[in-house]
Predict the structure of Senescence-associated carboxylesterase 101.
Amino acid sequence: MKKQNVASSLTEDSCFWAHVEEALISCKLLTNEGSSVEEKDFAKKELIEFEKYVLDLMKNYAVSSEIFLPGSSFMKWWGKYREITGTSYSSSLTNLLKNDNNYEAYAKGSLTQANVDRAVKRLSVDEVANMVDLECDMWLWLLGG
């Protein structure tokens, strides 16, 4: 991870906010009872790809810390996504975002690989196995199965 003060930096990917809006649409598809199984499956895959995309940007300090401002589209997405996935869901990105201190660390350029590694390693093998079961149950419920 490159360390720098990102408070005033610009997001390197000019399409970042478009990706955020697409992620918000995917959240709506997942919660919409009128969405087909195929639409929900596609939305789920898109959201997982979005998580990877954002994590990569954060690892490289390639996104402005303004994404964490209250009321930003990104924080709206995070609120909806957190509601959908619940507290049992865990990923590298969600573990980072669940800790509000990481927003400030990111803005100061002090979010280290160790922070990321801790977010990933926070869970024991048994907890991961339980989460996989819970995640499957959640997605089955969302898909109407």
Q: What stands out?
A: The first helix runs from residue 16 to 31.
